[in-house]
Amino acid sequence: MDLKQLTPRITVSPQITPADIAALKARGVRSIICNRPDGEGADQPTFDEIEAAAKEAGIEARYVPIKAGMVTDADVDAFGAALEELPHPLHAYCRSGTRSVTLWSFHQARTRPMPEILAAAKAAGYDMNGVARRIANGGKTPTDTGDASFDVVIVGGGAGGISVAASLHARKPGLSIAIIDPADIHYYQPGWTMVGGGIFDAATTARTMGSLIPRGVKWIKAAVAAFEPANNAVILDGCRVVKYTRLVVCPGLKLDWAAVEGLEETLGRNGVTSNYRYDLAPYTWQQVQGLNRGRALFTQPPMPIKCAGAPQKAMYLSGDAWYRRGVLKDIDIQFMNAGGVLFGVKDYVPALMEYIAKYDVTLNFFNNLTAVDGPAKTATFKVSKPDTEPTEVKVEFDMMHVCPPQTAPDFIRVSPLADAAGWVDVDQATLRHKSYDNIWSLGDVMNAPNAKTAAAARKQAPTVAENIAADIDGHSAVAQYDGYGSCPLTVERGKIVLAEFGYGGVLKPSFPTFLLDGTKPTRAAWFLKERMLPPIYWKAMLRGKEWLARPEKLEVASR
């Protein structure tokens, strides 16, 4: 825990965990303010988890999240009220500490001289020069000049961001390129299904962000607060401004745990787990190993979600483990799907239905999880079948694997880049923004109607890089993305149905059928998933090596 002293009685830090509460208690801290919204990071504990640990230690906790955009006057007022009402010594935290220091600085600016505020922040390791600029500009952040400027700025250091940076750098080595991302750790998220199935160790899916940023690319370790596309500017948390000539937006999506009542309070206990969070995937395997009888629920929310097959992957691997242990006959597996089909591409459904039968799974369509009572081990679902009035059902469980509802990140949804549903609005072939010619997007955050998978980003990154390179050379778009996505459905330990498809559900196999028939469960596909895809991800995709991912030539003229 990296504690920084702002005043004798106020400290700040990056994200804390429940395990840090004892150390804060030992330092005399009497209250905590959380300035980070839940669901920002895959390995982020929720505020409810922090609050529960704090209460147990006799520490008060308050939630003052800064969700998106610039820090508002209302945010400052809420933070100021917390400072006045909570007992001191007080500790505030967010993802990096910057939001907390920014709030404190704006609050202090009402009564203290600016040099004192800047000096205190600097002594704590935070540059608040943006505070002075904002106050001098009547409370608005000027974007006519920036703190830094680059030929290409990439928002997001996930699979899409690092891959497109590497691919673009290989094409145009002389470009100044920056990746903006606040995370210290980069995760191979497709591996979490295997962690939850007891095949991978969680640690093998994580590497430091700094070790993956391509050589020659600048890493700006900060969160984005807002976009000013009219001024070619990105505003960072803390009011710093980064200017760009071209922008790539790929921050991923938001896991909206809070959309399900009671879910955050029970995650990681009471048998409630999810492979969608790094720290919970091992708990999935723990629950599978410990369950010998009872009911296991596997939920899937409304689309869109990242990797639409992931909820049932967890179900199949769990069923296989219980089958191998000889306890499957005593376990009632229920698949609670908000949608109306098992899988969106019909060619793969027959193979999957064989495993539904093998594991004796009950399919419950149009069932959307709305609430969880962890201690009572009861889940509530809204049932909305076509042409019928919605009803509500409560289902008891012994174990439940939850796939959370998912949305675009808050700072995307409120931005000029978003469509009506909140996703970045792009041309689905060229991945260029429909309104801003110098902006592109890829990965889970954009609105093209493709499956949101890492395999999709692997194909999208070279397309974006090729089209940006063409744009720099004064040409129109030359490459197109065909909607390719891949979902290796882990139907049992040792076999996978390798679903590969593009726009409209058209099959897009990477290998000849005689080598690997993706519509059937095969050991070859399992070998690909377990042994080949992780090194391809780390050593090829993230390094700009476009194995089986070369850009497809644009067939129809782009605008």
Care to describe what's here?
With 559 residues, this protein is an alpha/beta fold. It folds into 3 domains: 4-136, Protein-Tyrosine Phosphatase, Chain A (Alpha-Beta Complex), CATH 3.90.190; 148-253 and 408-553, FAD/NAD(P)-binding domain (3-Layer(bba) Sandwich), CATH 3.50.50; 257-405, FAD/NAD(P)-binding domain (3-Layer(bba) Sandwich). Strand 12 (233-236) and strand 13 form a beta hairpin.
In short:
The chain has 3 domains: 4-136, Protein-Tyrosine Phosphatase, Chain A, CATH 3.90.190.10; 148-253 and 408-553, FAD/NAD(P)-binding domain, CATH 3.50.50; 257-405, FAD/NAD(P)-binding domain. Helix 3 crosses helix 4 (98-108).
Assign the CATH topology of the largest domain: FAD/NAD(P)-binding domain
Shape: globular
State the helicity in percent bands.
Answer: 25-40%
Characterize the biggest β-sheet.
7 strands, mixed
What structural class do you assign from the helix and strand content? alpha/beta
CATH architecture of the largest domain: 3-Layer(bba) Sandwich
Q: Could you tell me how far the N terminus lies from the C terminus, measured between alpha carbons in angstroms?
A: 51 Å
Output the CATH homologous superfamily of the largest domain: FAD/NAD(P)-binding domain
| Assembly state of the chains shown | single chain
Instruction: Tally the structural domains.
Output: 3
Strand residue percentage: 15-25%
Q: Compute the gyration radius: what is it?
A: 24 Å
The CATH class label of the largest domain is Alpha Beta
Low-confidence stretches: none
Output mean pLDDT: 93
- How many helices? 15
How many β-strands, per DSSP?
28
